[in-house]
Amino acid sequence: MRVKTARLHSFDLHTDEELVRYYIDNQDNRYFETLYERYSQKVYQKCISLVKESAVAEDLTHDIFFKVITKLSTFKEDSKFSTWLYSITYNQCMDQLRVIKKRGENNIDDHFDHADSNAPDLDAIFDGGDIEIKRLKKAMDQLNAEEKGVLMMKYQDDLSIKEIANIFKATESAVKMRLLRSREKLKKSYMDLIVFVGLLLVKLAEIIKYLIN
Fold first, then answer.
1. Which among 35, 80, 189, 206 is placed 20 to 30 Å from 102, CA to CA?
2. Angle of helix 54-71 relative to helix 29-51, nearest 10 degrees?
3. Structure pTM?
């Protein structure tokens, strides 16, 4: 999905929160267009990472920004605009996934594996280098949409447990448990991938040694 909105240089200097206030006060669409330009691609990427289909992700992105513009006056600056926006994004995606689940088009696996207690800390994984990020993305692909979503909300977008609970329509304690289990499953997938790569490298070294000799 490509954003075709032209760059609005004079508006780019404002913070998100300033743009929201200016739009509410003046009803000048250029303020909202700047917010759309800043975040539409990020919102789309979050949608497609969860629903997997580009057409559905594009429709969700448009629906999300329509909802944002109609609810902009309710935005409170006790949190960042991006946090508020991503909360709406995940709500919309999770609602869509619930509809798909009811239709029998998606089967969410509720089985969770347990990770090795020596697995690396998840915060360190998210802050790692290029190789670690690539492995993390592959490990994330092993999770279902809800598991991936709860981790992205907490560690990528810094949503609070209360905000995540509202999105999942669950209690805070249930979210904490879901977050713990998703962390464990991701860590196990991540460590399994490291072991696989290590074995692959050992095998490759043996093949090269055999060819040389």
1. 189
2. 140
3. 0.67
